[in-house]
């Protein structure tokens, strides 16, 4: 089972996979100790980054007090990030240094585009779900939170951007109003460009650091804050609001984080791994993430774009 990294008071420790390699003599005690030291550095410099531990915008959003105008601004900016992420994800696939890493990257990209995860045990969710359950948990016809895209089915309506479009429709926005660069503010576009430069970098060490930071940022709680705020708004003002985009991501991001930890374990002990570049990639993408959220907070405070 993959370890999931979350900001907490507990230090990161080597996984059972690394312990097994040590027991088999594939790694020396010194190598494992150095890897543990590296994980401690990752925890300090990535998982304790202030945009993970203290995001002012999502903390406010969680209260459910966003006005309709503020909601539309948020959805428009988030849609630009979500859609432009596809470019960075494709660059990550293209620049993957190994076939295994290419496949791991394609798992994320193809699922974003609408390939449904196929459960590895071959089971299907045959239970009948109400419309409310489908919105909260995802329609089993179009989504799954576990498995692999290998052998999965592609459906247009399973594309993540189509789910986000459904959220936007409930607020009076339409497909043509969201997702394109022309809809982004300067801070949103800066984040998108940094995603391409770092997450999609052709330097594998920079890309690995950025990927690890992005996936663990996504698993660290901001999706829950967004879901909490939107759920309150749906309950009090907009019962028609469709939240599957946010509820599904809140449930699935831990799987992505697990993939990146396994990938890190695989590359760390390979020749050519550069610890400093890995840390650089992660720090720079987290700073770019902070620019995005700080931009939304500044827009809110100064009523820019509202």
TrEMBL record:
<dbReference type="InterPro" id="IPR016084">
    <property type="entry name" value="Haem_Oase-like_multi-hlx"/>
</dbReference>
<protein>
    <submittedName>
        <fullName>Uncharacterized protein</fullName>
    </submittedName>
</protein>
